Amino acid sequence: MSRTGLMMSAAVGALLLASPVAFAQSTTDRAKTGASDTMKTLQEDTIGRRIELSAVPSKAMEAAHKAIGTNITEAKQERENGQEVYELEGRDKANKEHSVHVTADGKILRQR
Predict the structure, then answer these.
(1) 59 and 35 fall within a common domain
(2) Cβ–Cβ contacts within 10 Å for residue 43, how many?
(3) 3 state SS of 70
(4) Residues 39 and 88 in one domain
(5) pTM for this structure?
(6) Neighbours of 62 (CB within 10 A)
(7) Within this chain, do residues 73 and 101 fall inside the same structural domain, yes or no?
(8) What sign does the CA torsion over 34, 40, 46, 49 have?
(9) How much is the pLDDT for 22?
(10) Are both 5 and 56 inside the same structural domain?
(11) Among positive and negative, which fits the CA dihedral 51, 53, 59, 62?
């Protein structure tokens, strides 16, 4: 066998040996990315994600104003029992912090 043929055989052999490792690494990377996306979704569903106050439906905002006052400073959107829920936080006239969980149509689920 010529020297060139021997080098080509060695190169092809090395490529064949490295391919499964490269494939396994790319599969592992995709699995990690998928798990990370799933974890982020679960966190958003569990603890909510911050949203702009302007993104809160008007009926939900009205109910929150009645429940905790007009100084609403923060909003989160989350999913509870398959339903979109907004957690709105703010301070009353005595500067005490309050929060309320309300549906898009203005139904108060709980407040503290």
Answers:
(1) no
(2) 12
(3) coil
(4) no
(5) 0.58
(6) 13
(7) yes
(8) negative
(9) 54
(10) no
(11) positive
**What's the pLDDT score for residue 64?**
93
The string of DSSP letters for 77-112 reads EEEETTEEEEEEEEE-TT--EEEEEEETTS-EEEE-
The token duo for 84 is 């979109």
pLDDT in tens, 8-66: 676 666 656 666 655 556 666 666 666 666 665 555 555 679 999 999 999 999 999 99
Three-state SS at 72: strand
| Beta carbons of 84 and 90 less than 8 angstroms apart | no
Q: Which domain holds residue 29?
A: 1-47
pLDDT value of position 112: 86
Question: What pLDDT is recorded for position 110?
Answer: 92
Amino acid at the residue 75: A
Average of per-residue pLDDT across 60-87: 91
> How many domains does the chain fold into?
2
Question: CB-based contacts of 79: which residues, under 8 Å, 6+ apart?
Answer: 44, 45, 85
